[in-house]
Amino acid sequence: MDINPEIAARGLSPAEARLVSKLEFEDSSILDIDTIERLTGSDRNGARLLASRLAKRGWLVRIRKGVYQFVPAKMAGYPRRDWFIILQGFTAPYYLSFLSAAYHYSLSPQRPAFAQIATPRLIRGSYATKNHGIEQVVVGEGRFFGIREEASDGLIIKIADPERTVVDCLGFPKRSGGLFEVARIIQRASRQHDLDLLVTYALQFGNKSLLQRLGYLLELVGGETVAGALDKLAESIGRRRAYLGSVSEFGRHGDYVSRWGLIDNIGQERLLAELEY
Fold it and tell me: Where are the beta strands (DSSP E) in 3-142?
């Protein structure tokens, strides 16, 4: 394969220029040492040396040990930094969720700075930190459900489906823009997505106070279309009283809502003022 003259002119050795030209031709985004061996015919050490040199010159960006993002000439030296790229280096069980997934599904206009992922346990690798653009939220193994795969430019990630995203946002409001944004997410989801599936996921999540908060907020934002979902939730709530908002943020005072066994420590008027109509 001929070397692109523009690539050859950018200070690369013939071997480096040939590899870059092949990566450009194949339109590769993610590659590993095996890929470099295949494309160049080099041995393992030679492939690693090529990767190291190209990383120093800005043609490759290390995602994790032995895995790289290729930065083609058209990117002018600026690597792609979206969540599809960032998560290619994540090998442990995960799925994208919380405000990140809500933004992906247009349930929220807020785009978090990090790829927020749910994990069954804390992953301690350096590739799983905020320095690498990832924020972990440990949810436990029993809560790994409602997950799908999505692709972009041949890159695949695991992500909560819209209904599971809503449940995670309500379960972890501090990771999801705060309770007011979660209320707006629920409002948008009630108009676009499967409420029966949302309730099924909420029940499977295994948190009674989450059911109480979901029922109250759905009743507040959903109108007549959510009646069936409300009945199913009301049958499943616990007897223990719950608070709508975090006590540390909103205090303990508020109206008691008997249907949901819930103390609204925020106030309907304040909530309604935050919603979209």
Answer: 30-32, 60-64, 67-70, 95-96, 115-119, 134-138
